[in-house]
Amino acid sequence: MSARHEDRDSGVSRRRFLAGASATVVAGAAVAGTADAAVGSTPGPGTQPDHLPARQHAWQSTLKTDRYGNAIPPRFDRLLFFDVAGSPTPAEALLLESRLRALERRFRWGPGGLLFTAGWGSTYFTQVLGIKSPIPRASRMSSFEKPRIDDYHLCLHLACDDEHRLAAVEAALVHGAPLAGVSGSMALAPALTWRETRTGFTGAGLPAAHQDVHGIPKDRPVSPSAPLFMGFKSSLRKNQASEDAVTIAHGAFAQGTTMAVSYMHLQLDHWYRGFGEEQRVARMYSPETTVADVKRIRDEATGNPGKIAQAIRRFGVIGHSQATALARKSGRPLILRRDFNTVDGGQAGLHFVSVQRSIDDFVVTRNAMNASGAHLENHKITATTNNGINGFIDVRRRANYMIPSRADRSFPLLQGRNEVLG
């Protein structure tokens, strides 16, 4: 880790990377056991498997679904952050593209193999290319948060059902370690300099298995059936925008999307010790939602946004789902969530990752979550009291990224890249 990032969040990144690197030997054996075929080094960027989608963010069709049609997300995720090393040339674009195509040849596209996106931050456009950024720099978005705004140039989001595989891929890209089934180096240096890694998981059993950390009571309250630390699902299909809806239709980034990335610490002592199940349901969904209602949820979280005025005046409690539903357009959410829990640094947390057509869609959704002005109607409600889940999250980091189409993912808009990559 570079010196300018070592003091952030108590060295989370350094410890996380060392833990990932230490798993490489085990990971290599696991990956070798599932090798489809060795991938030879190829001059130029190399070939791509046929029929890969034009959209990097086209993950949904590869995911399994439950009995109600809800997508089952990959069980493990990693966010790898890089800066461009010096002034890039088409050779750097060729290097990055060759590594990403090698991953595509080595692993089938899907959670059983590997899913990934390459997203570029606003500073890549303004500082590296010296042009206007197509996305705004992230910012503070409520009175109760004070996030550090990241300035990384590149974020690689990796996801699959095998944590060892992610460790092996990270070690290959970041540290130049051999990757079973691939011949030749996979290192992204010297084109890119690694800065930080964030890790996590989602799915029944995983939060319960990782709950012995700061931010969660010592009596292990997280249920073995819970897919996330707070005990509720986040991937219900009617609470998600479709991939079509979040895809940019025209312009230089057609078939791409935007990505918002936030790192939050979770403080769940009062969530579990101070509240019973009914009170948690009221704050996650709405004060009119019952525990029995939650057990009947199939494909959409309850919480009628049309009754939020009643929730404020009569109950003095606002539901998180109820508030964010105010941001919908034609009844559908604006963002597609790909968030996951984490124990980076020994602290319960959430890496909130969402893709949306415009960063404005994320801003509208996040602002709805604030329920600003509710305190004027009922003094029992403040920015963080009786106001959804706002009082239980501490936003530590935030950034926005542009995810180009697959064809344009390696150093987008860099002069000369198209001649090299074809």
Please characterize this protein's 3D structure.
The chain is of the alpha+beta class and 422 residues long. It has a domain at 7-201 and 409-421. Helices cover 28% and strands 16% of the residues. The chain is built from 15 helices and 10 strands. It has helices at residues 12-22, 24-32, 90-106, 122-128, 163-175, 206-209, 243-246, 269-273, 277-284, 291-295, 308-315, 320-324, 359-370, 374-377, 417-421; strands at 76-84, 115-121, 148-149, 154-160, 192-201, 257-266, 336-337, 340-342, 349-356, 393-403. Strands 1, 2, 3, 4, 5, 6, 7, 8, 9 and 10 form a 10-stranded mixed sheet that branches. The longest helix is centred in the first third of the chain and has 17 residues, at 90-106. The two termini are 34 Å apart. Mean pLDDT is 91; it is low at 1-42.
Number of strands: 10
What percentage of amino acids are in beta strands? Answer: 15-25%
- The residue-averaged pLDDT reads 91
Structural class: alpha+beta
**Rounded to an integer, what's the Rg over CA atoms?**
21 Å
State the helix count: 15
Helix and strand succession?
Answer: HHEHEHEEHEHHEHHHHHEEEHHEH
**Main sheet specs:** 10 strands, mixed
Question: Based on the structure, what is the oligomeric state of the protein chains?
Answer: single chain
Instruction: Give start-end ranges of low-pLDDT stretches.
Output: 1-42
In short:
The protein is of the alpha+beta class and 422 residues long. The protein has a domain at 7-201 and 409-421. Helices cover 28% and strands 16% of the residues.
